[in-house]
Amino acid sequence: MILFPAIDLKDGTCVRLEQGEMDRATVFSNDPGELAAHFARVGFSRLHVVDLNGAFAGESRNAEAVDAILAATDCPVQLGGGIRTMEAIEGWIERGVARVILGTAAARDPALVREACRAFPHRIVVGIDARDGKVAVSGWADATELSAHDLALAYEDAGVAAIVHTDIGRDGMLTGLNLEETLDIARAVTTPVIASGGFSGMNDVARLAAPDASILEGAIIGRALYDGRVDPAAALATLSGGE
Predict the structure, then answer these.
(1) Cβ pair 46, 75 in contact under 8 A
(2) What are phi and psi of 5, to 5 degrees?
(3) Cβ neighbours of residue 228 under 8 Å, at least 6 residues apart?
(4) What is the rounded CA–CA span in Å between residue 172 and residue 6?
């Protein structure tokens, strides 16, 4: 079970949003590289990075900050936000990103996702961001009628490395992970699934350590980590079976 600390980038700073609203952002650090290095020092093995400006713009807007993160740590980084072309995917992989997350592209351009999976095996992650079970795209600004479950199934044979399932309504709200829906998706596909949105504290760590959650690849933690609601050492020990 991998616990991914989230680094969300807005205008070069590290922030947390509430329910994906850009005007409800709290800045936690002005130094993305140092924050990434800190997460590595306290024991995290992977990082989840999102270019929030890029998600809305449809192209990367925080490249300098991402480069600083890549330079500051050897932890594998999965990056999402505004990556919607093969050129952009290839560019980020060449710059050192371990896995590229495709969200809007997954809903609107399945051919691109499949092409990317063929070109970069085990390097492409599908981001499924859902509000009330329906997928939202373009930085969560645009709703669709596509269900999260159906989108996950659509890529079952594509060779996707993982699926990140985010409950938008819970994201940044500290209300607890929506593991019921995430586990439903995980049971329906063979692709590894990562839970995201609403991580609230050590209660979520305990829930992730339960036997039925073992089918998940991991979970993404944001505000609960920044607010000190989760002790990294205790959480990582619990999820590794240390206690």
Answers:
(1) yes
(2) -70, 135
(3) none
(4) 11
pLDDT, one tens digit per residue, over 23-68 is 888 999 999 999 999 999 999 999 999 999 999 999 999 999 999 9
Domain that holds residue 25: 2-239
CATH number for 191: 3.20.20.70
The pTM of the whole model exceeds 0.85: yes
Number of domains in the chain: 1
In angstroms, rounded to a whole number, what is the distance separating the alpha carbons of residues 131 and 40? Answer: 31
Question: Would you name the residues annotated as active-site residues?
Answer: 8, 129
Structure token digits, residue 210 = 């339960």
Q: 27: Cβ–Cβ under 8 A, 6 or more apart, which residues?
A: 10, 13, 14, 15
Tens-digit pLDDT profile for residues 6-25: 999 999 999 988 887 888 88
